[in-house]
C-alpha cells in the first residue's frame, strides 16, 4: 500500500485527486479498511474529502492490484502559517471482523 505520488502542490479551493496503490500479497481474499491521518492536527479541519476509499471497506482478492482515489479540497480559510499538510493512511486487515459466525457449533 503506497501513494502513487508522494508530494503534490495544491491550490486552496480547487478539487484535487490523489491515488494510492494497493496489492493483496496474501493467498486469500481479504477485506481492508483505510484509516486516515492528517498532520499537523490543526490542518485536518481544512481538508475536505469529497470521495475517499476510506469511506468504505475494500474487498481485495488474492493477488489483486487496485488504484484507490481520494478527492479533496483544501479550504481557502486554512491559516497561512500552515504551509503544508500530510495526508496518510494506515490499511488494516478487517477480514475476521466482517466474517459471519458459523451456526455449525450451535
Q: Could you characterize what this model shows?
A:
This protein is mostly beta strands and 106 residues long. 4% of the residues lie in helices and 45% in strands. The protein is built from 1 helix and 7 strands. It has one helix at 95-98, and strands at 2-3, 15-23, 30-39, 47-52, 58-60, 65-74, 86-93. It has a 4-stranded antiparallel β-sheet with strand order 1-2-6-4, with no helix packed on it. Strands 5-3-7 form a 3-stranded antiparallel β-sheet. The radius of gyration is 17 Å and the shape is elongated.
Helix content percent band: under 10%
Strand order in the largest sheet: 1-2-6-4
User: What value does the Rg take, in angstroms?
Assistant: 17 Å
The arrangement of helices and strands along the chain is EEEEEEEH
Number of strands: 7
Helix segment tally: 1
Distance between the termini: 39 Å
Topology:
Elements: E1 2-3, E2 15-23, E3 30-39, E4 47-52, E5 58-60, E6 65-74, E7 86-93, H1 95-98
Antiparallel strand pairs: 1-2, 2-6, 3-5, 3-7, 4-6
What would you say about this model in short?
With 106 residues, the protein is mainly β.
List keywords for this structure.
1 helix; 106 residues; 4% helix; 4-stranded antiparallel sheet; 3-stranded antiparallel sheet; mainly beta; elongated
Amino acid at each position: 500500500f503506497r501513494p502513487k505520488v508522494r508530494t503534490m502542490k495544491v491550490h486552496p479551493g480547487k478539487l484535487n485527486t490523489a491515488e494510492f496503490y494497493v496489492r493483496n500479497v496474501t493467498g486469500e481474499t481479504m477485506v481492508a479498511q483505510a484509516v486516515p491521518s492528517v498532520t499537523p492536527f490543526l490542518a485536518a479541519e481544512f481538508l475536505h474529502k469529497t470521495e475517499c476509499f476510506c469511506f468504505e471497506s475494500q474487498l481485495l482478492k488474492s493477488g489483486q492490484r487496485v488504484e484507490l482515489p481520494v478527492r479533496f479540497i483544501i479550504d481557502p480559510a486554512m491559516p497561512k502559517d500552515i504551509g503544508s499538510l500530510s495526508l496518510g493512511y494506515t490499511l488494516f486487515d478487517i477480514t475476521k471482523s466482517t466474517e459471519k459466525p458459523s451456526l455449525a457449533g450451535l
